[in-house]
Amino acid sequence: GRHRSPFVRSAAPFPSSFSSCSLQQKRHFSGKSEDMSTVYAEFNEVREWFADQLVVDDGFFKAIGKFGRVYAVKKIINLDLKEFLEGCKHAYLEVNRCMLTCQFDELEQMVDESCIEVMKTSMEDWKEAGYSVDISPEWNADDPKSIDNVISISSVQLEDCNASFHAEEIEEGFRDAMEGPKAMKLTYTVTMTVKIEAEESYGLINKSNSEDNASSSSLHDNVWTFEAKVVEETTESRAYPSVGADYSWKLVHL
Q: Counting C-beta atoms within 10 Å of the first and last residue's C-beta, which end of the chain has fewer, N or C?
């Protein structure tokens, strides 16, 4: 059976592509021409992702303009979509493990504070309403891997993605315009929204009203958004960050 997931989706909007970049900056950071064999190879890889219905949600596949978004994301962070979706599975299990055991401090590096507050509120609301979480007998809170006995992920698909770019001049005091190109701080922001379908073998138990209990085996459809930022300082004209730029994913919307 299905019952409402403890995760409540927030209303955080997606940034529009290059929305915070002026027209002059867009022209300046238009990038240099690339070797076309590389472009074709990357294009074909994105096309293969779109052809795989296990990877890309059907609605996303049919939407106009989404191919270009995925290509832009790939260029910014050298995206491997299948590897990213596999990482989402691990993130889903780890976040649920920490939530069920109320170990929210472990989530601070990988989950936005607003999402952590949603999870804390859900757990507190359950407790105040007289509910307790009914965990599978195979669950062991001290063993992170035992979460596999509680949650079985059926599928993870890309549902949406976006990329934005912001260029900001770095103030260096008075300088002659003829001294050369000015230093710029470039911020590339990528968001990836995934749909996760999982069978979860825990439920809510109301000790005062057994008829109000939720099923202990429930199918959940969750939509999560992850964000990554790449920040660089440079005087070069570039539409994308340098190869191998550092970034990390953070759950920002659930």
A: N
For 12-41, the pLDDT digits (tens) are 333 333 333 333 333 334 444 567 788 888
Q: In whole numbers, what is the pLDDT of the chain averaged over residues?
A: 80
pTM for the whole thing? 0.79
247, two tokens: 């970034």
209-230 per-position pLDDT tens digit: 766 665 556 788 999 999 999 9
Q: Report phi then psi at 124, rounded to 5.
A: -70, -40
**127: left (phi > 0), else alpha (psi -120 to 50), else beta?**
alpha
CA distance 43 to 27: 23
Question: Phi/psi at 181 (nearest 5 deg)?
Answer: -65, 145
Contact 254, 224 (CB under 8 A): yes
Q: CA 6 to CA 91: how far, in whole Å?
A: 16
Cα–Cα separations (whole angstroms), residue 126 to 88, 146, 233, 234? 26, 23, 47, 50
